[in-house]
Amino acid sequence: MRQPLRTSNENGATPISNMSHYFYDAHMHLQSSKLLGVRDTFLDSMEVLGIRNIVVNGTCEKDWGLVQQLSSNERVLPAFGIHPYFGYRLEDGWDERLKTLLDSTDSTVGEIGLDRVVEHLSFSKQELLFSKQLVMAVERNMAVTIHCVKALGKLLELLKREGVPDRGFLLHAYSGPKEMIADFVKLGARFSFSGSFLNRDHISKIETFKSIPLDRLLIETDSPNLVSADRGSSYPAVFDEHSKKYSHPESIVDCYKYLSEFLEIDMAKLCSVVESNFNQLFCNTND
C-alpha cells in the first residue's frame, strides 16, 4: 500500500496545492474509453482542484494494463478485479494472473461483487468468482471494493464465511437499508456516497447517509458512470458523439459540496474526516 500524499515534501517545500482542504475519490474508472477525451486534462488539473487521490478500479482483465499504466501518476491508486458484469468471459489462468498483478503492484482489489440484475452470469458462479477474489484480498490484507445490487443479504453471508481484510472494505455507492449498516460496520465496512443519489429518482438513497458513522464515510464519482444531478455544477458532464451523458471525474468536488450541505457538516470538517478514512483504508497510515 502507498504512503498517503502529504502537503509538503521532506524539506517542507511548497504544498501540493494552495487548497485549505483536499478531495479523494474512492471509486472511479479513469481507464474507461468514455473518458479518453478528458483523461489527460483531468490528470493535469487534479493538483489545482485539490484532488489528492483517486482509486481507479479495473473491472476485467482487458483493462488491468491501462489501470496499471495510469498508476504511474502518484495520485492514482490502482485496483484490480473482475466485476460480475464481465465474469462470463474469463480466460483460463485469470486468477493466477490477478494474483501476480496484486503481488507486483502497489494496489488493492476491486471492483468485485454480486449483482442479481446480471443475466449472462449465473448468481452461483458470481458467488464463486466473488469469494475467490475476496480470499485474495484477505490473504494480502488489501482493501477490497465491492459492488452489490439486490444481494446484500448474500453478501453479508459471504463476508462472514470467507472473512474480510483486517484493513476493511468499501461498499461503493451504498444504497442498502440503514438497518444493515451496523452489521457491515462490525465487519469493517466503509460506505461511499455517490453524487447520483441527488437525482430525483434516487434521492431516498441519500437519507441512508445520515445513519452512516462519520468514521466510515467516503465519497465517489464512479466516473464515467452514475451521473450526478445537474445542480449548476462548475464541472461539465462529458458527452460522447451520441450525446450520452457521463459523469465527469472533476465532479468529485461537487459531490463533497452536496454532501456537506445535506449532512450539515462544515466542508473543512468533512474533508478532514474523509481524508482520514481514505488513508486508513487505502494507504499505509497510522492515523
Outline the secondary-structure elements.
Layout: E1 23-28, H1 36-49, E2 51-57, H2 61-70, E3 76-80, H3 94-104, E4 108-115, H4 123-140, E5 144-149, H5 152-162, E6 169-171, H6 181-187, E7 189-194, H7 203-207, E8 217-220, E9 238-239, E10 245-246, H8 252-263, H9 267-282
Model description:
With 287 residues, the chain is an alpha/beta fold. The protein has helices at 36-49, 61-70, 94-104, 123-140, 152-162, 181-187, 203-207, 252-263, 267-282; strands at residues 23-28, 51-57, 76-80, 108-115, 144-149, 169-171, 189-194, 217-220, 238-239, 245-246. An 8-stranded parallel β-sheet has the order 1-2-3-4-5-6-7-8. It has a two-stranded antiparallel sheet with strand order 9-10. The longest helix has 18 residues, at 123-140. The protein is globular and about 45 Å long. Mean pLDDT is 90; it is low at 8-18.
Question: What key attributes describe this structure?
Answer:
single chain; 287 residues; two-stranded antiparallel ribbon; 36% helix
Quick structural overview:
The protein is α/β, with parallel strands linked by helices and 287 residues long. Helices cover 36% and strands 17% of the residues.
